[in-house]
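2024-03-11 09:14:02 DEBUG pipeline.ingest accepted 1 chain
2024-03-11 09:14:02 DEBUG pipeline.ingest length=260
2024-03-11 09:14:03 DEBUG pipeline.predict start
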Amino acid sequence: MNEDIVVTPEWLAANRDEVRVVDVRDAWEFDGIGHVPGAVNVPFDRFRSEAGDEGMLPGAAHWTELMEAAGIDADDRLVAYDDEHGVFAARFLVTALLYGHRDWHLLDGDFSAWNREYETTTEATEVAPSSYEVREPESSPLVDFETVRAALDTEAVIVDTREEWEYEEGHLPGAVQLDWRELVDEESRGLKSCGELESLLADRGITSDRRIVLYCNTARRISHTYVVLRHLGYERVDFYEGSLTEWNERGGPLEGSEVE
């Protein structure tokens, strides 16, 4: 298990001066409700683009502008959070990974968990613009349409991270359904215990010895699942960035109640 990918509020409180904290909530939440002291704001809608490099990625030039405006360097140790159980923050971190950022972490339990125990502020964080360098990732989990289609005929576990009703309407042939929110404890807002996670995943045949292929609609929800699987030590996790948006556009096969 790689416990360092997901960090606790306690860990962040002890190491806040050593990391770059990124809040991906809307600006009005960051400014009006408050944020972790020293955090910079990179709202979720700023790093999403249907006209990006791959699927929903924002494009290298736009990503560079965002990082430089936020004062983030390519070698900074990032800790990201939102107030939605980490799903938007995870999308930020996977985007950073795909643009070559190598030190990234998700705050377990999101802003609400932090706010229960630690101070927040509405004061603006002073930011000195940086010079950010997009790099090739050391290894990329991205897979394309053809790779996913070929995986349908292998022993790979195709995982649909959407809600059950979405899955029932239409899903990739042979895919198992795992709503990403099943991995989260509603009360603590953080991840379920490792034992609970491993049992839940094993019940769906999602085990670390198998190749896992993740998809949803637009690659947001699979970002959270990807981070969780990496946290648990899974090594063969494919990330289908195009997800069902591209799959449907390209006429990929589907199974489900609304599939003719």
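2024-03-11 09:14:41 DEBUG pipeline.report Residues 2 and 230 are 7 Å apart (CA to CA).
2024-03-11 09:14:41 DEBUG pipeline.predict end
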